[in-house]
Amino acid sequence: MLAELAKALDYAFITVRRFLNHIGYFRSYTHNGKWYTLRTSPQFNREGLWHFKGIGFSKHGSLIATIGYLVGRSPAGLSARELAQKLQHPCHAVLTHLHKDGELDRVKVQGEFRYLSTQEQINRRQRQQAAAEQPPSPSLSLSTQAAVLVLVEYIKNPELSFEQIAANLQQHQHLSVAAESIRRFFQEHDLKKTPAAPTSGH
Fold this sequence. Notes:
The chain has 9 helices and 7 strands. It has helices at about 1-10, 15-25, 65-75, 80-85, 90-100, 120-135, 145-155, 160-175, 180-190; strands at about 25, 35-40, 50, 55-60, 80, 105-110, 110-115. It starts with a helix and ends in a 14-residue tail after the last helix.
């Protein structure tokens, strides 16, 4: 820390900073930037990060600058969880501020926010990739086509449960329908579901 250096060298802070500027240093992106290391010390990984005894250093500079670099080079953006794993440091609050300030864009994918670059071309690519990773949502209400296919499946196999009907439609018709939607459809149209007959053991 700067105070430790100043005490050991018996120099004022401003003089120690001048020495560090002359020698070359990196300042930690963790611990509010309180830790310093010589420029020759870090052995950065491919993403430009180095950790020593729980202290994180980045060749990209501050935590905000490092987040910007990591997000900008990611194909589909990064979630707070993914960034925390890379940085070995929580950053949810920082990401929220960066989004509010317009420094980062974000989109929800599979229940969590994915943070994206605000540069137009990068943002477009990341949004397309993120959308490709998002599984199709099951229908909340049945379309006419889905209703017909549900009825056909039920007529062919009246012993199937709503969950099994949904699974069959997904497998054979590539139609994503929630079992709850099928159950609601039966209730709304006062259709009685015949329970499966018990099988006798041998």
